[in-house]
Target: Asp23/Gls24 family envelope stress response protein
Amino acid sequence: MKQMVNNPVPGNLKISEEVISAIVTQAAVEVEGVYGLADIPISMKEYILLAKKPRAIKIAMNGGTAGITVGLCLRSGYKIKRIAEQVQQEVKAAVQSMTGVTVSKVNIYVAGVKNEQRSV
Model:
């Protein structure tokens, strides 16, 4: 009986920033205490010269490494530091496990807190 060896085919794999952004979104909103995503402020220079619009996730690729910034709106009644740290961990783990892209850092920008009752 001949044994099959699974050798990867030589070539390149490129993963779009939109795919990474979708993974980041899913990982972030699943953390308890996160209400949703919020736009990260941009400078006036970026807005005028580069025609950039504010967005909730910013991905900076440097070689094969990603630096990620996530804008969040949190639910009131939760500890901001704990939620931010948990989002950092979840985003990093999800992106690295699903894409193989190394995540060097995950910056969190808390844009607001939504005052609503927690459901039990």
In short: The beta strands are 34-37, 57-62, 65-75, 102-114. The chain has a mean pLDDT of 87.
